[in-house]
Amino acid sequence: MPNSIPDAEGPARVVLPAILDLKAIPALKEELMQAAASAGGIAVDAGQVQRISSLCLQLLLAAGMQTELRISPCSKAFNETAHGLGIAPALGLTTDSDGRRQ
Question: Are 22 and 50 in contact (CB under 8 A)?
């Protein structure tokens, strides 16, 4: 389950769990909606992600359309999945799945 950490001065921070499958969608949606209500945008920590479904990535894309979304750190699994689906640039990921800058 994601963990939203409010930050009074900056973006709300959402820490993603290791597994983001279909079961994780309701909790992720709720966390992103709460975080999007903050004035500073959302800072997503995807450093521990081992597996993420395309639907969870779509939720992140939708959140990024409503508020500023920054993803850092980003695990290799998260990065590879986003690149494999062709949505890494839309998520603001600037390195390829091997960690090289694009």
Answer: no
Please give the helix or strand (H or E) that residue 30 lies within, else none: helix 25-36
pLDDT tens, residue by residue, 27-82:
999 999 999 888 789 999 999 999 999 999 999 999 999 999 999 999 999 999 99
What does the alpha-carbon distance between residue 92 and residue 64 come to, in Å, rounded to a whole number? Answer: 9
The CATH number that domain 3-91 falls under is 3.30.750.24
The span from the CA of 94 to the CA of 102, in Å, is 6
pTM (two decimals): 0.84
Domain range annotation of the chain: 3-91
Query: What is the spatial distance between Cα 47 and Cα 14, in angstroms, rounded to a whole number?
Result: 11
User: Residue 31: in which H helix or E strand, if any?
Assistant: helix 25-36
